[in-house]
Amino acid sequence: MMRWDQQVRYAAVSDIGFRRRNNQDSCAVRMCNDPDTWRDHGHLLMVADGMGGHAVGELASKIAADTVCHSFFKIRNTDVRTALKQSLETANAAINERGSLNRDFARMGTTCTALALCPQGAVIAHVGDSRLYRIRGERIDQLTADHSVQWELMRQGRLRPDEVFLHESRHVITRSLGPEPVVQVDVEGPYAVLPGDVYVICSDGLTGHVQDAEIGIIARELPPQEACRMLVNLANLRGGSDNVTVVIGRVASSAGSGSDDETAPPAPGIGLGWIITMWVIALLFAGGVICILFEHFVQGACLLWGSLLAAAGAFAVWLERRSRSRSAGEEGIETTVWRPYRTASAKSSVAFLNHLATLEGELARAASEERWAIDWPAQQAAHALARGSLEAKNYPKALSELAKVIDILMAGLLQYRKQVQRQSKWGKPATPTPSPIPKTSPSPGPSAPMPSSEDRPEERTP
After folding, report:
1. Does residue 152 register a pLDDT over 50?
2. pTM for the whole structure
3. Domain 8-251 of CATH type 3.60.40.10
4. Would you list the DSSP string of 334-388?
């Protein structure tokens, strides 16, 4: 369930990446401005990743974003699940029809993952391998199953999770909008929406470079605007081999509050089911003992064996649930694949923060050597705050400051790349404009190990 007065803060960014010449991704966010519209449909957030090469994939994702948003809010007198599914089917028909009109556009397609936050909760419609994650407390869960060859092999037990990135078919998707007149749309939910929940929708340009746990840490600790920029920067720093699109929606911690402070759900205790189970086991055991005392040995033995088997079964169930929900620990960022979705720890990790500090140091050294245009005073001020926060073990503050430093350095890198591209285009040697480094300040980058792109995202509060 979700209430109208639960505010949702959101941000969206779509970046071309470092190796593509055009952006084939599209995204859309439509927040309801009145309670009647929200009651009938809910807020809508979506990401589409086009395929087909150059303008073809770009056109397909644009049609999907426009059509899904228009169709979803146009459909009346039906439930949100049906309306969301029909809107993706309408987009599929529109893309397929457009592709049939031009031989150059034949077989064009796009992924599409859409989230509706409505009175019933979170409803998801999904085709392709763009993912939707939910961060709740210290855990990140993937709520969509990739429609790809490697994911199907994992689902069938023919491929282990640790073999995914070694498999040659990991980028081959089995389902998308557009290539066929009819498409199968997966609809998930409605899932309960709790205060503090964070939803991340992204294209595979992000998930190909950033681990689930890293996505969870960044989206959990940073406001949506900063989180989007940090995730895109991290994907680009690790190669930027594809377009990167991220949409983040954060449900306010309390109704009518715009605060980003997350109220984690209460720690799980002993539920009613476990209390009943323990009482049943105890009664079986006591009954068995009483029967034996009154010399009803057969009945007593059966009751005792029954109590022991019940206790063993309950213990096995407890172990299975504990292994699934237990955090990976302060240093752990491994992903667990199950059912066939994925879950990982979203708890701040010292190892991850040190990794970001190392990236920041390498970027700063490169900026100094290659004379990027950097706002050095701002960079060094944020760097000092990050170092102090790490030493004080204030990990959320350290992450926020590291994100600021990396964003400042990445802005200089992007400007440098554009200047080099312009000069290469006109056949001139790359001679970037020097940026002076303050002589009174220490050189950029950490002097010792720290302790154990252009598109700016939009953030609004409806």
Report:
1. yes
2. 0.76
3. yes
4. -EEEETTEEEEE-S--HHHHHHHHHHHHHHHHHHHHHT----HHHHHHHHHHHHH
